[in-house]
Each structure stands twice: as structure tokens, then as C-alpha cells.
Fold this protein.
Amino acid sequence: MRTGMPVLAILIAVASLRAASPDTILLRGATVHPVSGPDISDGSVLMRDGKIAEVGARIAPPKGARVIELKGLHIYPGMIDSATEIGLTEIEAVREMSDISDIGLFKPQLRAATAVNPASEHIPVTRSNGITAVITSPGGGIIAGQSVLMHLNGWTMEDMAVRAPVAMRLEFPQIRTPGRFGGAGGGGTPGRESAYAAAKKRYEQQISELNDFMESARRYRQAKAAAGPDFATDLKLEAMIPVLDGKIPMLIRAEKEKTIKEAIAFADKQKLHMILERGTESWKVAAELKAHNIPVVLPPTLRLPEEEDEPYDKPFSIPGELSKAGVKFAFASFGPGSEDNPRNLPYEASAAVGFGLPYDEALKAVTLYAAQIWGVGDELGSIEKGKWADLIVTDGDPLETRTQIKQMFIKGASVDLDNKHHRLYEKYLAR
Amino acid sequence: MNRFTVFLPALLAATPLVAGEATVIRNATVITVTKGTFQGSILIRDGKIVEAGEKVLIPDGARVIDAGGQFVMPGIIDCHSHIAADSINEGAVAVSSMVGIEDVINPDDIDIYRALAGGVTTANVLHGSANPIGGKCQVMKMRWGKDAEGLKFEGAMPGIKFALGENVKRSGSAGNGFGASPGLRYPASRMGVEDVIREALTQARAYQKEWRDYQAKLDRHEQAIPPRRDLKLDPLVEVLEGKRYVHAHCYRADEILMLLRVADEFGFKIRTLQHGLEAYKVAKEIAAEGVGVSTFSDWWAYKAEAFDAIPYNAAILVRKGVLVSLNSDSAELMRHLNTEAAKAMKYGGLNETEAISLVTINPAKQLGIEGRVGSIEPGKDADLAIFDKHPLSNYAKVEKVFIDGELYFDREKDLEERPGKELRKKALIDKEKAQEKKDRRRPGQTEDKKSEAPGGVQ
């Protein structure tokens, strides 16, 4: 079974050839927003074999190409949501309908790509608002498992996967005291100190287990390289090799300043390629993140401040602060207090614009920056020759609620924007 | 650290204007909701809107607020909130009409200020959804800095929470997460939910008759002993007599119809269906009953009964003639109900006025306070929110909020005060740290102090 991942990788490679659209499509007459460069008014995009073949002001339609006139409309790259549970959870409250987490603390062998349901109702609902690719991650424990980056279209994971795995996800241990009001107003409550002591002990133990696990993985890699006759495959440790080799990043969830700093030190020591997830207090360590070149997957902008006495608009202003500090980040819909409504991803970006984030940066943080952070900056995230043709056609700015998504292309193929919600709408409006 | 935060809110309290002094907001785009949108001014005096129009004479000595390039809309009204309350659910019993939010108002909840900063001026604060008949609701104005009484929306119709479906049934299974109720609590099915409501209303009817008989005897100058007062049934009698609004948490179309039938049977009207995520399926029946719906813009799939929820709910209901509002049920969502309203344009094609109505005049009507708030009209309370951009834009932010003509939120002032607050906070933390150091040098002191003042201020 040690060949598990390469097999999947081969399947994906084969599938992408097979799934490539035979169509050559020319979109023209629209304002093209490549994101990576200046807007092109009255521009054209030529798609061939699932990829963007050409972008420019005037492109002559090749013989046999389908031409779509888009006068008055806009073309943007499809948006990328950098934290979701799409495909793993259908109905959050129904145990049987969620595959987000499993038992145990160290589960690097678990693959989100395995359990994503390509027929999930969340996929068409999400993409209908312009999101063409998402990261879906497992959760729970310490090392939660492998995240997948996937296009939101396809019959099977083989059709959908852009990178499987795209990252290993680690929920960095932290001191968690019990009780919602454990921190606030509980200063003198009897038992709080012992609860804190127990939580601290647990955290220290988890840190030590994490370090031990990393050490085991290193030794395993060494033993495997030596390839002695007695070498026995261990699926957990095997799964860590691409992480140790720096082939996939470690997506590390850390929220508070202290935890983020510990995570940075950990990644440094372990020589990991780190992506910080959530980082509700990332603004406190912006300089360090910048110095270590660590990108951030943000928590939802539309959330409450962490502390009662934080400025009311703190969550709205953090993206702007990080941008100023030169930290690279991507927006995401999943996180604390989120409605788990990934179709609202663009509004996490626009919510930061009124509070200091330049518009262009907001748009990039749901497109190009996301692609770059996930190591696919040359495949997704902008309208450039050679990239996957994941495009949306809109009647305006996709970060504004009132804008309608008119058409979508994923891997160069036209995608049906209908979904369960719209079907129910038509059915009951007609009643 | 959080212990100090209680001092900070007081510093942000409203800036009162001198009584009788006039204020004019001018050069703004005025979104009245009921009387169109225009470039013009609003004259405020004694907490009321005196005039709103393209040309408004500025009285001598009036305070003038130039809102050039900005947008004024009526203060947002949230028809479903749980902020500013110390507790939400009394889930140990299936009928908890004897309890009410009015007794647990927490005027220091920072979420009041945060809601203000999102343009909200009025909220219907409800009991939770743990039981078929829940506790009494409280309509509040976000008068940050006032005490519990000062938050109450004086004269608003009283309300009570009903709840149907999964949350209610959950208490019929072990480990329900609602309060301290040990073991199982009836009901555990939608059949049981209907039964509990009918049973309670049947009791209320009998109780109402006892009082009527008593009153009749008194009217006939006969001797009579008053019935024993029942604090649980009193509010239900008010419901039967149309003196207390029912705001009913519900999801599925079938349970919505159940409740409408029960209300018909007992001769009263449900005021609003709260959430009503499947209301669009029975819009006709709801419209025929004249019942309002207060829903989410686009939440779905978080539980089984929310799996058929659609973001077109509000638009379908509006088109079928139902009075609809969009609510938050969340201290976070409450901060951007203006863009929640924009979603009803995206999903179902409402126009701007219809969309803004969902968070202003419509919830005002649902709460029976439309004579006071919900639109910019002469004679109404001067509850206004000023945005820097059109409030339906995701880039808009709130600059100023007035309640009763008083400035309760001012972004400029908030920004100005931040450095000072940071300094005061730091000073308090330093003081605490110094004290801790002192205490450490004299071991035992702290414990002694604690035992002297059990449960001291924290």
C-alpha cells in the first residue's frame, strides 16, 4: 500500500487528459480582468483543451471554435476558497452525513480526497457564486490528515483534483481550558487553576507527542532509504515523507499569538514549508510571518472580535494590516463562528476593503494569491496563457453581493450554474 | 484581562444633545424606505424626525452634520436576536412562558455596541428555542450606556417565543445540551410539539374563563373569589386575546401549517414565523393568514430541517404577498444586515427598496412599532444610520448612528478614543501585574483576602 499516493497521482494525470474538453471556445467582447495584469476592455479569452490558450484585446477565432459574445460583461478568474469542508459534510448536525474527522491524534494517512462526495449539493450551490476551486481539509486530533485542492466540477475525484494531497493539516496543540467563560470573569473561581493546570499538562504532553511523531517519521524515512530486508511499511509514517521532503506544505492551524509563534518555531526546527491557517491573531506576529515567508489562510473576515475590548472592526481591518506588513494571505469561508457558507467567500474579501485593504489585493486573495499559496500559481488563479481555464463571467464586481454570475467555465468546459436552491425556487415560485 | 473591560463601555456612551436643540443632517442621499430616495436633509428635534426633504430650512442654532457623499437610512431593525441577555433558554420544562428576557437584560453586553456599529438601532431579543412554548421576548433599542430599563423599547407590543421542530425535539433525547434538564423531556416528535402547544392553550382558555366568570360575578355585584394567578398561563391568555405577539421558531413547511391550524383553532394569529426556512413552500397559506416571516438570507444545511432552505425564500414570500424581514439570530450577522438584505436582490430579484425594507420597515411592522421606527418620516423617532457608501454595497461602512436623535455611534470618535483606551488598559494591566508581584512576595496574602471576600467582584 505504500504506492497508494502515486497511484492516485497517476489516475489524476490520466483523468485530466481524458476530461479535457475537446471544445475550443473563444470568449469575446467582455472586460477581461486577468488579476495578474491590467484589465483589458473589449477583450477576448481563447480556451482550448481545458487551458487558456490566449488572452488579449483581439483574437481571431480559430477554425471550428465556438464563439461566445459577452458584450457588457466581465471575465474574472474563478475564485478559490482556501478552507472548506465541501464534499466531506453534507448536513453538519447529522453525524451520518459528515466525514470531516476521525478517531485519534495522529492521522496523516487520512485523505480528504477519499471521502469527498462529488455529488454533494454544496458543490453546485458554491460554484454558482463564482467559486471554481476549493481546499477541503480533514479536521480533529493533532495531525488531521491530507487536504485536497479540487475544481468544483467533475464526476469523480479524478476529474476534480488539482492536487491530492495539496497539504498535510496540523492542528497545533494549545492550552484549552474548559468552559465558555473560563477566561473571562473566572479569575477567582475555585477549580479554575486546577483546570488550567490539567489543560497545560495535556498541551505539554501533546507537544511532546508531536515532536516524537516527527522524530519517528524522520527515522522511518531514513530506514526506508536504507531499505533493509526487514523494512516494514507504516502507513502513518509513510504519509509524512512528502511533508519532510518539502514536497507538500504543512497547513498549520494556530489561532492565538503564542500558538502561532510556537508553530513558526516548530516549522523552522522541522524544516517544514508552513502555511498558517486561521491565525486570528496573525496581525500580532505579522513581522515574523513576513520574515519567515509564511502565508496565511485567513479566518472569515465577517466574525466577531476575539476580545471584548478589541475594536469593533478588528476582524475587518486585519487583512489590510497584514497586507501593509507584506504578509501573503488568502481568504477562506471556514472558521470560527462561520456560517459554513462557502458561496459567501467573496464577501469575506470585500468586507476588508472598507477597512484598509486595497481592492486589488482583496481580489487577488480569492484568486491568484490563493493559487500561489497552494503551490499552483502557474496553473490557477489568473487569466494567463497556459493556466486551467477556470473562468467566471459576471455582470459586475464579483466581490459585491448584487453582482450576478452569468457563466462559468471549469477546465475550459461550460458549467451548469443551476443548483438545488434554484430548482426549488422555480418549483415553488410556480406553485 | 477581561476583568477590566467592564470599565471601557461606559466611556463610549451616547453623546446627548441638548433637549429642544435641532440637528440637521444635510447633503446626504436619504433613503426613506417608504417615501423614496433623494438628495437632501433631515431635521431632528426632541428625538424625532421633524422634516425630511430635498430642501429643509436649517433653524437658527441648529447643529449641522454634513453628510456629503454619504447615505442615511432608517436604523436597522433585527427581528431575531439574543444579545444583551444573561440567559436565553429555560429548557427544563416544555412550556416556559413564565420566564422572560425582560428580567435578564444585560446592558453591558459589548454586542450592543457592535450591533450599533453595524447600523442596528432596534432588536427583538428572544428566548431560545428549547421548548414548544418558550419565554417572553423583549424589544430593545441599542441605547448603549443606558441601564436595562433604558434599553427597553417603551410601548412595544409584548411578545413570546414558540418553537417547533428539531431543537424542541432534541430535549426528548439524551444529552440535548439545553440546560440542566436531566433525562428525557416530552416532546420528542413533531406530533408531541403540537400536543404540548394545544395542551397549554387549552389550559390557558380554561384559566381565561375562570377570570371572565369572576369578572362577570363582580359586574353583577355578586360575591366572588378571584382565581389563583398563574404566571405561566397569564402570557398565554394575552396571546389568546391578541395582546401578546407570538414569534414562532420553525423550519419545515408541515410544522408551519400545523401552527397556523392550531392558531386558527384557538382564535389568534401568529405574528411571525421565525426562520421559516421552508416558508416559501407554503407561501400561499401564510399569506392567506396574514402571518409574517422573519428569515435568514442564506443559511442552510446546518441541520436536517435546514436542508431545503434556499436564499430565494425572502423573495418568493415577498412576491406572494407575505410581510418578510431578514434577521440575524447572531451577534455577528447582526453587524451586516444591510448586505444580508442585498442578497434578496441577488436571489430572487427584489428591488433596492424592497431589499432595504426587509431590515427596516418590515420588521418594524412585524413588531408593531412601525408608527415609531422603520422609515424616515416626520414624526417618527430619529433612529438613523449614516453609511459612507450605499448600504447595499459590501464596501459600505457605518459612520454614525442616532437613536432618539442622540448620537450613539460615531466611527470618528471611536477611532479617536482608541489610543487613550489602549493606554488605560495597559495601565490597569500593569497595576494588576504589580499587585501580583507584591502578592507573590507575601505568600498566603492572596488566599486570606479571598476567604475574606467570598465571591468578590471579578
Observations:
- Chain A is about 30% helix and 20% strand.
